[in-house]
Amino acid sequence: MIISGKPKDFTDSYKILESWDNCLRICRNDSNCVMIYKISDTLCEVFQFGEITSVDRSSLASDGVIAFKVKSSFDQCPSDNPFYSSKSISYLNLNETENELYNTTYTYSNGSLDIQYSITKCPNDTQIFIREQLAVCIGLFYFPSPNLCNNQPKASALCKENNGTLTGPANSNEYAYIQAQSQASYNTSNPGKYSYLTYWIDGVSLSGKYNYAFEDPTHNGIANYVWAENCPLYQSAGYCLYNPNAKGYYISDIE
User: Fold this and answer.
1) Domain ranges within the chain, ordered by starting residue
2) The PAN-3 domain covers which part of the protein (predicted)?
3) Alpha-carbon dihedral 171, 28, 30, 115, rounded to 10 degrees
4) Residue 208 binned pLDDT confidence (cut-offs 50, 70, 90)
5) Superfamily name with CATH number, domain 126-254
6) What is the mean pLDDT of the chain?
7) Are the beta carbons of 254 and 239 closer than 8 angstroms?
8) Alpha carbon distance 142, 91 (integer Å)
């Protein structure tokens, strides 16, 4: 997003000798770049995550040009300035290697663009994912011995004990991760007398087919659930959703 303004408060930066168009491409492709400032047609200044905290947008800085990242859910640039409808907009950048989410928030007020930063890191044995503007940490938790198999209310309680909630996949990437963790548990957590371990997933049936109550409202219900053949089996209330086979890719329901 390109607007008028000049850097005001910052701790560090670096300059590159490139055309403005190339500067835009470089920043867009650099996950650490949050903002660039056009010094001339062949020179720009680059600011990385955490380095710049405010931009002067007063009339004295109206001849300056800056660009910063905002994530769009559309296939093309928005027709209106996002600040017309909101005083704050955020850019989320997922660092999968470090399992961290970098959030940059831009707030416009009184001739100044203020920038705030935050880092979300997930606990061990969980993976971070982005749902719209929300970061979630997904993991599989095992019932403690000797009750390695237990019911859905106990599964819900176990998630809450770990400061979480039962959830389901919000997209195919989350589903693939959940399945991979479940399949890994076949080798690392299998108590021996079971052929495989199953896992509970968010959803308790109400009356009618495909009608469920959920603990977690952020995963779009059953939109990304992959059902076993002829499932769900039941259309009355009180049936819980689970994966019946850790080596399979399908979801079923059980009382």
Assistant:
1) 2-121, 126-254
2) 2-122
3) -90
4) confident
5) Mannose-Binding Protein A, subunit A (3.10.100.10)
6) 85
7) yes
8) 34
Q: Cβ contacts of residue 180 below 8 Å, gap of 6+?
A: none
Matching residue, tokens 């850790």: 246
Of 75, 58, 57, the C-alpha closest to 66 is 57
- The residue length of the chain stands at 255
Neighbours of 179 (CB within 10 A): 19
3-state secondary structure 170-215: CCHHHHHHHHHHHHHHHHHCCCCCCCCCCEEEEEEECCCCCCEECC
Spatial neighbors of 133 by CB under 8 A, at least 6 apart, are: 90, 92
pLDDT of residue 84 exceeding 70: no
Q: How far apart are CA 255 and CA 247, in angstroms?
A: 22
Q: Do 164 and 219 form a contact (C-beta atoms < 8 A)?
A: no
How many other C-beta atoms lie within 10 A of the C-beta of residue 239?
Answer: 20
